[in-house]
Amino acid sequence: MSVTTVSPAEHHVDGNVHVLPQTNHLRALHTIIRDRTARREDLVFHSRRIMRLLIETGLDLLPYEKAEVETPVGSTYDGLRLTSKICGVSIIRAGDSMETELRTIIPSVRIGKILIQRDKVTKLPQLYYSHLPADIAERHVLLLDPMLATGGTALAAIQLLLDKGVREEHIVFINLLTVPEGIAVLHDRFPNVKLVTSAVDRQLNENAYMIPGIGDFGDRFFGTDR
């Protein structure tokens, strides 16, 4: 799957891939959080600003219906309201970093958890834990995970949601950073899943690290990096 370079003022959409407009301000935020010498408090603060933009964009992809309200001056505003129930699902542990922004935007949102780790011998993703809303099949799901690299964890998490009855087109994958390889793997397997990301890096290197990358985001965000 090809990914077109995004111009600074463009909100790039390639099928179900939605990339935030690559504005000067967004690139400045990325400059802070990608810096290997960044203080943890700076990385947390500025990455949360990007996460807020990502979640707002993801919410814009959900279904709405017309709704009229009367304004304080007695006029009518032709507005919109969500027509579906939603929930967030974070992929432990890095995905937990995105929960605060989702709860800030929608304080009452329900949030499920999935823990998937790569087996040291087989190198395949293994499901260790999941706890999801009982009615998740009736909801649109915002799947939260900052990194989409090889795609193995994302594929396993999405398959779990499908097994629980969630419709593929009802899943919006909110992602801080990805690469063309990850996008291709995701949409080869699940073409109807919507992906929202803030940047598409050049490639994966021989060790499956994103280039130019950001390092282990979960460790850096939670302060467990060495």
From TrEMBL:
GO terms for molecular function: uracil phosphoribosyltransferase activity. The keyword S-adenosyl-L-methionine does not apply. Gene3D superfamilies: 3.40.50.2020. Keywords: Glycosyltransferase, Transferase. It is an enzyme of class 2 (transferase). This is Uracil phosphoribosyltransferase. The lineage of its organism: Bacteria, Bacillati, Actinomycetota, Actinomycetes, Streptosporangiales. Residues 21-224 form the Phosphoribosyltransferase domain. Pfam families: UPRTase. NCBIfam families: PRK00129.1 (NF001097). Its EC number is 2.4.2.9. It comes from the Bacteria. InterPro entries: PRTase-like, PRTase_dom.
